[in-house]
Amino acid sequence: MGKLKGKADQVEGKAKEEIGSMTDDKSMEMKGKAQKVKGRVEESTSDAAARMRRMGEKKR
C-alpha cells in the first residue's frame, strides 16, 4: 500500500508543481515539490521493507 500511496503523492505533487509554475504561484509550486519528495521517500521505504521481508523469508 505504501508504494501505491507514494506513486499517488508523486503524481499529485507533479500536478501541483506544474500548476504553480504556470500560474506563477510559488507557494503551490513548492508544495508540489515537497509532495513529490514525500512520495519518493514513501515509495523507497516501502521497497526497502519488502526487501527486508523477502530476506527474512529466505533465511527460514
What is the β-strand count?
Answer: 0
* Protein structure class: mainly alpha
Helix content: over 70%
State Rg. Answer: 16 Å
Taking all residues together, what is the mean pLDDT? 93
Distance between the termini: 25 Å
Largest sheet properties: none
Give the topology string: H per helix, E per strand: HH
Please report the number of helical segments.
2
Description:
This protein has helices at 2-22, 26-58. With 60 residues, it is an all-alpha fold.
Outline of this structure?
The chain is mostly helical. It is built from two helices and no strands.
Summarize this structure as a short list of keywords or feature phrases.
single chain; 60 residues; mainly alpha
SSE diagram, text form:
Blueprint: H1 2-22, H2 26-58
Helix pairs in contact: 1-2
